[in-house]
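[Automated response] Your request has been received and processed.

Submitted sequence:
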Amino acid sequence: MTLNVYLSGEIHTDWRDQIIEGAKGLDVTFSAPVTDHDASDDCGVSILGAEDNKYWHDHKGAMVNAIRTRKGIADADVVVVRFGEKYRQWNAAFDAGYAAALGKSLIVLQMPEHDHALKEVDAAALAVAREPSQVVDILRYVLTGSLPG
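Generated structure:
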């Protein structure tokens, strides 16, 4: 069995790299949004033309990014959504809801401090992990039946 895993959420730490590295040797294919913050913010105006109004600048970027996000989530067997500590990731919450609405297996990766704020998101998830290594352990268990350690 091969798992297609979409890695959504915060882009300011190396959590994706930790999961990808930890999953080496497993039959997993990973995809993700564009993680270059400036490119993600400015893709719409860079491709479709400048906007004086910041709302339309952001709107164009969100629409262009949604093409990749929708495809990645639609093709995924498992969607991992990471909520980091520094920023409120409204887009991550949207991705989690979108994945849940599509019936995707959802793993949320978050700190305990966010448990209350994310209780509805967590209720839609099949697992709430605290560390990237726990996500790897879940993927390994799903694919091989092996427990950690």
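Summary generated for your ticket: Strands lie at 3-9, 28-31, 78-82, 105-109, 127-129. The longest strand covers residues 3-9.
If you did not submit this request, please reply to this message.
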